[in-house]
Structure formats: C-alpha cells, structure tokens
Amino acid sequence: MKKEEWESLCSNCGLCCHEKVVSEDMLLIDLSNPCEFYDSENKCCSVYEERFKKCHRCKKVNLFRAMFASYLPSICGYVRWAKEHHVRLCKEKECVLGNGVFDFVDD
Questions:
Q1: For the purposes of burial, counting CB atoms within 10 Å of the CB of 78, is it exposed (0-12), middle (13-18) or buried (19 or more)?
Q2: Would you give per-residue pLDDT tens digits along the chain (107 residues)?
Q3: In the chain, domain spans
Q4: Whole-structure pTM over 0.90, yes or no?
C-alpha cells in the first residue's frame, strides 16, 4: 500500500493527539489535554508534515502499531482497517473519554 493510501485510512478522530493511559482492560483518553499542535476545530495536526520533528511524543501509525498498539481506540481508521483485514492482534479495551482525567495527578 502506498503512503497516500495508508494515510487516507485516518478517520480524523484526533484521539491519537490526546494524553492517554492504558490499563489491562481500559484505555483512558483525556480530551482536555491535547498535543500543543492539535487543532480541535479541524480535528487534525496543525504541523502535520513536520509533526515528528516538532513533537517528540508523536508516533507514526504504521501497520505494526495498527496491529498491536493498545493506545489506539477502536474508532481509529487504522485500527478499523486492521480489524477488517484480520490482523488486529491487540486485545480490545474499553475506551473512556473524559475531560480532566489526569487532574488528580500531582506535579
């Protein structure tokens, strides 16, 4: 699959751009804590072409991550593709979205 075809699988949910915690059976996504480059109006990265240079936390969603990454929610276009092709090998987790999920953590 060509790069353009793979990237077109993205569903623009924007959830990969938020802080996450993964437990044994749950994925918590803090909607109030997006990446500094996340454009919430358009649900995309404002520095998309340079995202890996500008944001050290940003990881390319490749086939390996679509297959195994437990931090990607089931609505992710890459995860849906992996499921459709029977190559999603990661256990499904309940995805909990919320604001201020990590506010209880002390600095």
A1: buried
A2: 899 999 999 988 888 898 888 888 888 888 888 999 999 888 889 998 999 999 988 989 999 999 999 889 888 999 999 999 999 998 878 787 777 655 554 44
A3: 3-98
A4: no
